[in-house]
């Protein structure tokens, strides 16, 4: 560490400048900045921030601040080798408090692309693989020069933009995207005869006991911005413990170690856990209502009159999915000697299928051979393959969540993984062989990274990072887990 940043939480702002939206009238404001926070989240399309100012120079009316102003900050930390630069825009003034000659207020900051998103509407039809569509929207419509990281998608889509905003269109594409790298066949049989025995006949294009082709485990994407740029990856890729040729940031940070009160401080204080608090780890009712374990999907094709029912079951899809923990099977409660809650669909999804809208041939447009397709449309409506999987994968990340505070590390971004080691809570006699809590330690996905720089604490300020972390299964990768269906 340099003399400027001697401890793990030290930092130094080398430059903090605010200017008008066109870059004119730049003003240095580092001396009146009390605290700066920078936030990334895998569920948000843009980064956010807050800047608390103690203003005795009349900056509010001197610039004046009217919205859209550029805020550029440069700082040095104990972890980063190079100086870090962040560029954001003002979108809101909040909590202004004035007394005598001073006033304190907060500037709410966002990335420039979110402001542009509010003014840009897409008029032309969009077609192709979702990753290609999103890349084009970001660079051509939003005019962003930031890097874009993604993995290729398996299926093509076509849709009318209908004057929607860029990020609204992207949110429509997220659940219907399937990873080309991770796709695999899943056992999701049609259950029309098992569930709806009152049906007078089986749909003519579906024979009894026939299985629809389906993609398992790789449906459900996330789109977010972090300090590196924009990202578009599947939940499975983020949960995989193997490196991906597309996702370059899969190596976990850490390990971050929990230090007990009676233990000596570690040699490197940058990798200690200051505080950790686990949120709700079990919500069985919500999981059942969300269909995490089993979902019945009912589809009707209004162009052909065909009706299908397909069941998603976590027990059959679990092994084809990627998992952060060491569980070998899902946690599903038994309700009998052999039956579990996953054996009964607890959520029903109904939707209309339409293969024909973008197809002009005389033969069926369906992408499934058993429907008589000879030259199917590349834009087939394949909701029966991704709908339940995407919902279940999103919900699975809430299986185990926690909030952790560590010494500041601006290099950790939303979408990264972090390895944590929590001290064993077993009796002292057992800690010699099991020093770690093997069920709750391990690799987690960083859902949100919030970096806070306070100039009001200590001689060199105080820099801390708050991580909201989550994972879909329990256990450390190098230790067996007791969780699962027993």
Short note summarizing the structure:
The protein is 14% helix and 31% strand. It has 486 residues and is of the alpha+beta class.
General description of the model:
The chain folds into three domains: 11-112, Trypsin-like serine proteases (Thrombin, subunit H, Beta Barrel); 113-182 and 217-250, Phage tail protein beta-alpha-beta fold (3-Layer(bab) Sandwich); 185-215 and 284-393, no CATH class. The longest helix is centred in the C-terminal third of the chain and has 14 residues, at 383-396. By secondary structure, the protein is of the alpha+beta class. Strands 1, 2, 3, 4, 5, 6, 7, 13, 14, 15, 19, 20, 21 and 22 form a 14-stranded mixed beta sheet that branches. A three-stranded mixed beta sheet has the order 9-12-11. Strands 17-16-18 form a three-stranded mixed beta sheet. The radius of gyration is 26 Å and the shape is globular. The chain has ten helices and 22 strands.
In percent terms, what proportion of residues is strand? 25-35%
Distance between the termini: 50 Å
Low-confidence regions: 185-209, 211-215
Report Rg: 26 Å
Q: Give the overall silhouette.
A: globular
Q: Tally the helices.
A: 10
Biggest sheet descriptor:
14 strands, mixed
Care to count the β-strands?
22
Number of domains as seen in the coordinates: 3
Could you outline the blueprint of secondary structure elements for this entry?
Layout: E1 11-19, E2 27-28, E3 33-41, E4 48-55, H1 59-62, E5 70-77, E6 84-99, E7 102-110, H2 112-117, E8 126-128, H3 130-141, E9 148-150, E10 157-159, H4 166-173, H5 192-195, E11 221-226, E12 229-234, H6 235-239, E13 253-258, E14 272-273, E15 275-278, H7 284-290, E16 294-301, E17 306-313, H8 314-317, E18 347-353, H9 383-396, E19 400-407, E20 417-421, H10 428-431, E21 442-454, E22 462-471
Parallel strand pairs: 9-12, 13-14, 13-20, 16-18
Antiparallel strand pairs: 1-2, 1-5, 3-4, 3-21, 4-7, 5-6, 6-7, 8-10, 11-12, 15-19, 16-17, 19-22, 20-21, 21-22
């Amino acid at each position: 560490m340099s003399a400027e940043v001697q401890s793990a939480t030290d930092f130094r702002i080398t430059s903090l400048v605010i200017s008008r939206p066109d870059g004119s009238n730049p003003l240095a404001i580092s001396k009146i900045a009390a605290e700066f926070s920078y936030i990334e989240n895998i569920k948000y399309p843009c980064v956010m921030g807050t800047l608390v100012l103690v203003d005795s120079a009349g900056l509010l009316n001197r610039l004046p601040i009217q919205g859209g102003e550029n805020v550029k900050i440069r700082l040095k930390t104990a972890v980063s080798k190079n100086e870090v630069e962040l560029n954001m825009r003002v979108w809101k003034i909040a909590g202004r408090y004035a007394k005598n000659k001073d006033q304190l207020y907060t500037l709410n900051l966002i990335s420039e692309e979110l402001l542009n998103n509010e003014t840009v509407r897409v008029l032309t039809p969009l077609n192709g693989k979702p990753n290609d569509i999103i890349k084009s929207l970001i660079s051509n419509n939003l005019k962003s020069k930031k890097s874009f990281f993604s993995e290729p998608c398996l299926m093509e889509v076509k849709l009318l933009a209908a004057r929607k905003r860029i990020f609204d269109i992207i949110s429509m594409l997220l659940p219907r995207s399937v990873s080309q790298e991770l796709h695999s066949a899943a056992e999701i049989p049609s259950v029309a005869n098992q569930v709806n025995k009152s049906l007078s006949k089986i749909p003519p294009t579906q024979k009894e006991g026939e299985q629809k082709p389906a993609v398992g485990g790789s449906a459900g994407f996330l789109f977010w911005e972090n300090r590196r740029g924009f990202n578009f990856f599947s939940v499975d890729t983020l949960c995989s413990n193997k490196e991906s040729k597309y996702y370059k940031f899969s190596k976990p940070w850490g390990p971050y170690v929990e230090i007990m009160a009676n233990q000596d401080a570690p040699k490197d204080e940058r990798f200690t856990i200051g505080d950790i608090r686990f949120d709700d780890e079990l919500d069985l009712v919500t999981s059942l209502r969300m269909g995490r374990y089993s979902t019945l999907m009912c589809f009707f094709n209004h162009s052909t009159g065909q009706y299908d029912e397909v069941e998603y079951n976590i027990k059959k899809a679990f092994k084809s999915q990627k998992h952060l923990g060491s569980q070998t099977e899902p946690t599903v409660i038994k309700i009998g000697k052999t039956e579990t809650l996953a054996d009964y669909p607890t959520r029903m999804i109904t939707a209309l299928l339409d293969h024909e809208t973008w197809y002009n041939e005389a033969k069926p447009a369906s992408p499934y051979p058993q429907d008589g397709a000879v030259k199917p449309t590349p834009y087939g409506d394949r909701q029966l393959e991704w709908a339940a999987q995407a919902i279940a994968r999103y919900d699975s990340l809430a299986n185990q969540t926690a909030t952790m505070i560590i010494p500041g590390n601006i290099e950790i971004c939303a979408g990264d993984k972090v390895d944590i080691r929590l001290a064993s809570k077993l009796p002292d006699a057992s800690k010699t062989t099991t020093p770690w809590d093997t069920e709750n330690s391990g690799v987690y996905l960083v859902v949100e990274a919030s970096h806070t720089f306070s100039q009001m604490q200590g001689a060199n300020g105080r820099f801390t990072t708050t991580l909201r972390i989550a994972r879909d299964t329990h256990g450390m990768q190098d230790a067996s887990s007791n969780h699962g269906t027993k």
